[in-house]
Amino acid sequence: MQKFVRRGVLAAGGTLLGALTARKWLPAESRAEEPPPAGPHMALPSAIVAHPPTALPPFGFTDENGRPRSLADYKGRPVVLNFWATWCVPCVSELPALSRLAAATAPDGVAVLTVSVDRGGVDAVQRFFRSHAIVGLPVLSDPHSAALSALNIDGIPTTLLVDREGRERARAQGAIDWNQPDSRDVLRRLIG
């Protein structure tokens, strides 16, 4: 009985590895050419690196004036694209670090975009930013979660690192400590 269980576990692991390879997604730890940084606080520990970089499907969101926007509006710039909501505790805890990241990377031309999936849309985001003193981040909204669906995102917060050509280089699900120098180093290496 034990050997059947062991075979089942091995088969499941092989299936998962095959699925990751078929989708051209590999965890950062398994990429020989880009080893994870050393140290107790690894940068982007939950990041999955796209190998090779992957073109993104078209998707849209709305800016604070209600105008439709898309990733194409930022072509030629590296983008940190974060999906969040006001009711999501890890999302909210990550916002101040994203605000500081936006300020720190602005001279390099990096666009830090935080797209809220709150059903209340832009109004909910504006109220939240005011009440929590969030500055330096654009007010962007996707109240119907169309972008999440187009990008095959099943949880928030999720952050995509997008290069200057508009290709996804990595994605991480869960809050990231953007204050860690190694997080910024990985960001520069992947999309800088």
From TrEMBL:
Q: Where would I find the Thioredoxin domain in this sequence?
A: 50-192
Concerning PROSITE patterns, the annotation shows: THIOREDOXIN_1 (PS00194), THIOREDOXIN_2 (PS51352)
Assigned keywords, A-Z? Redox-active center
**Nucleotide-binding: present as a keyword of the record?**
no
User: Which Pfam family is one of those matched by this entry?
Assistant: AhpC-TSA
Recorded protein name is TlpA family protein disulfide reductase
What organism does the record attribute this protein to?
Rhizosaccharibacter radicis
